[in-house]
Design goal:
This protein is of the alpha/beta class. The protein has a five-stranded mixed β-sheet, with helices on both faces. Helix 8 crosses helix 11 and helix 9 packs antiparallel against helix 10. The longest helix has 28 residues. The protein is elongated, with a radius of gyration of 23 Å. 31% of the residues are buried. The mean pLDDT is 95.
């Protein structure tokens, strides 16, 4: 396991609890190896090396370093949130050296140690079959699948996260409407009862209920800035390329952008235009 952060560290622990032998490398925390080269030397071929590092430059650098250290027949697994087209390219690069490359979309966040990780696996049948015991340990029952060829695991995870954007935004809008309603509603109570029997019950709703318990129904100590990690953008880009309408996911991403504006210049444009054509009053700073 390369990368022992919130995900990689817990995945390592879950594997060890199920009696898998796992060696590790992370320059920031205590590991069994002090370098990629030493890590590779701690394994017997055919090796399996799982990258659990942030997507982008770190993944690219780690992949290149691994590729220089492994041997034909070894398998490199990317469990980060990489762009699926990058994964397809890395598969081709690895294949040129007779090295297997498997892309693993991983979902569940920090709760995976106890409940397991949903795994969406892309790659060739041989390395996926050989690593099935690892996937069985990491995932909950019926919680993993070999979804297709190289890149498909990260493609499915990308769409998964796009759907997540839409679900989260729907909850956000509904609870904001209740927050501003004429009624004095207990949002903690409402989130609580919706967990049982409601059509909109979900794990996200359970997490929202826990957030209200922890921070209060007004979420006073939570900032309104909402980041995105790229998957929503990739989903929309792919939808444009395929001419597939994804209005909900698009709106959810744009809502995140709007959350980062202290003051909207676009809103000023709207106010100025209303004043110009209709003489409507504007508020001044």
């Amino acid at each position: 396991m390369i990368g022992l952060g919130r995900m990689g560290g817990n995945m390592t622990e879950r594997l060890r609890r199920d009696e898998h032998e796992v060696v590790t490398y992370d320059p920031k925390v205590e590991s069994t190896a002090a370098s990629i080269e030493e890590l590779v030397g701690q394994l017997e071929p055919p090796r399996a090396l799982w990258m659990m590092v942030p997507s982008g430059e770190i993944t690219e650098h780690t992949f290149a370093e691994l590729l220089a250290a492994v041997e034909p027949g070894d398998t490199i697994v990317d469990g980060g949130n990489s762009y699926f087209r990058d994964s397809k390219r890395r598969y081709e690069t690895a294949s040129n050296g007779d090295v297997h490359f498997v892309d693993a979309g991983v979902s569940v966040g920090v709760w995976g140690l106890e409940v397991g990780y949903c795994l969406m696996i892309g790659g060739d049948e041989e390395p996926v079959s050989r690593l099935a015991p690892v996937f069985e340990t990491l995932a909950p029952p019926k919680g993993w699948a070999h979804v297709g060829s190289a890149g498909s695991g990260h493609f499915v995870k990308m769409v998964h996260n796009g759907i997540e954007y839409g679900l989260m935004q729907a909850y956000a809008e509904g609870f904001e409407l209740m927050y501003h309603s004429e009624y004095k509603l207990d949002l903690l109570e409402i989130a609580g009862i919706w967990r049982y029997g409601s059509v909109v019950r979900s794990w996200l709703l359970e997490l929202l209920h826990e957030a209200f318990e922890e921070h209060g129904s007004d979420l006073a100590d939570i900032g309104s800035y909402v980041e995105d990690s790229g998957e929503g953008r990739w989903t929309i880009t792919e939808a444009i390329d395929r001419a597939v309408p994804v209005p909900v996911i698009s709106a959810a991403l744009f809502a995140r952008f709007a959350s980062r504006q202290d003051e909207s210049f676009g809103a000023k444009i709207n106010a100025a235009l209303r004043k110009q054509f209709g003489g409507h009053a504007v508020k001044t700073e």
